[in-house]
Every structure is written in C-alpha cells, then in structure tokens.
Design a protein that fits this description.
Blueprint: H1 3-21, H2 38-45, H3 72-80, H4 94-102, E1 108-115, H5 153-171, E2 178-185, H6 197-200, H7 203-208, H8 213-219, H9 227-242
Parallel strand pairs: 1-2
Bound molecules: zinc ion (ZN).
C-alpha cells in the first residue's frame, strides 16, 4: 500500500466514529394532495440553525413565502433557518426589498428566463434560413431554435433595463446585495443534439459566427463539435459584464 493511500485510510478510520455519531440529515418527503403554506411547513419540518450563520449567505428557494412584503417575524423565521425570500429584477418589488432590508435580510434578486429571450427583446433577432430549409424545432423545455446567437441587440436592451431597475432600487434606499441571473438561452440551448444545424442554415449566422463554426459549416459535417465552447469563452463574459450591477 502506498504511503499516501495508507494515510488517507488512517484518516478515514479516525473520522469514522465522528461521522457515525453525527445526526442524520433531514430528507425531504413528498407531500401528497394540498400542501399547507410554505411557512407552516418550514416551521414544522425545518429546525432553526443550531450555530450562528455568521457572514455566510442565507439560501434562497424557488418556492418561498411570497414576493409581497411580509411582517418582520416572517423574515426572521426564515433567517433563523438559514433561508431568505428572494425578489425578482423588477421595480414592483421595491416594497418587498425595503421590508426585507428593514428586517435585517440581505436583498437577493433571482430571476430565470431562457429560450429566445432576451434575443427577442429587439427586432430582427431570428434566424434567416436558407430557402427550402425546414428548421429543426427544439424539444427543449425552453426552446430557442430561432435566435441568431451572435446578434446581441436584445441583450443590450435587457442590460439597459437592468441598469434602470437597479437605479430605481438605489433611489428607493435599497442596497441590492446579490443578483442571480438564471438565463438559459443561446448559445447553450442550441448545444443540444443537432441544435447548431439551424444556425448553419442561417445566412446571417454564417456571416457572424466565428470559426470553427464556419469551417465546420463548409465541411458539411452534421455537428459543430467544439464550437459552442470556443464561441462562448470569449463572448459570454463580456456580455454578462454589461448586465452586471457594477457596469457603468
Ligand atoms: Zn442565425
């Protein structure tokens, strides 16, 4: 047995009693029928934290209490369990953000979107298919088979919208502590099987997408293997940066 392996085994044996004596994790149980309100379930099923959260962030959940402003005790019940209510990137939620902030919660924005969005926020965003080509229609739950991935006008529109929204929160005295943008659009959505085929039959994509897309297109092969990664690395970070709260 090699020394490193022996040390690892000894460490595992030393830790075994501690692991064995640890409390079993809480495992979520599926609830049948009509469910009680989230807060009631939370209080019944999730105990408060036993140790201070300190500087660690609370968790956010897809489902939580409400986007409407809540009494401080509701937010405290969440925080006591390491959870907070998030809000969306929407100025309508400024009252909720103010209530969260007043209750001592960080203001965390989280918003999901995908498919052709935000490409479709600007005109002239869709593929310009070759005559006679029948597009492959995505089976994705967020189908995005129509958008030209390299046409970013819709992203610019959305970036301006985000800046405007964040300014409104700032003017209302709200400090936005974090923003999560769960956007699942191009180019990743086209990465599914044969997803790039539509782009390869689009006149504009052939002109705007960088190699190796062009090279692959000329070769007539069935996939654009490696292209999404090559394209997204230099392209996506700058696109994301234009949408960040710190952007000018
Ligand atoms: Zn296109």
């Amino acid at each position: 047995m090699r020394n490193a392996t022996r040390r690892l085994l000894l460490a595992a044996l030393a830790l075994a009693p501690a692991i064995a004596s640890a409390e079993p994790p809480l495992v979520p149980q599926k609830t049948e029928g009509k469910r009680p309100p989230f807060l009631d379930r939370l209080k019944a099923e999730v105990p408060p934290l036993k140790n201070p959260r300190g500087t660690r962030w609370p968790m956010i959940c897809w489902e939580c209490v409400s986007f409407d402003p809540q009494p401080p005790e509701v937010y405290k019940a969440l925080l006591d369990r390491g959870i907070t209510q998030h809000i969306q990137l929407d100025a309508k939620m400024i009252p909720a953000a103010q209530a969260l902030q007043k209750a001592g919660c960080p203001v965390i924005m989280m918003q999901g979107g995908g498919g052709p969005w935000p490409y479709d926020q600007a005109p002239n965003w869709a593929h310009q298919f070759d005559v006679g080509y029948t597009p492959l229609v995505s089976k994705s739950w967020w189908p995005s088979w129509k958008a030209c991935p390299a046409v970013f006008e819709g992203w610019r529109v959305n970036a301006d919208r985000i800046r405007d929204t964040l300014r409104k929160f700032k003017d209302a005295g709200v400090t936005v502590d974090a923003v999560w943008m769960d956007w699942e659009g191009e180019p990743s959505s086209s990465g599914q099987k044969n997803g790039w085929e539509n782009a390869r039959h689009c006149r504009r994509c052939r002109e705007t997408l960088p190699p190796p897309f062009s090279a692959t297109s000329r070769s007539g092969t069935a996939t654009a293997a490696g292209w999404p990664r090559t394209f997204s690395r230099p392209t996506w970070p700058p696109r994301s940066a234009t949408c960040s709260p710190a952007a000018p």
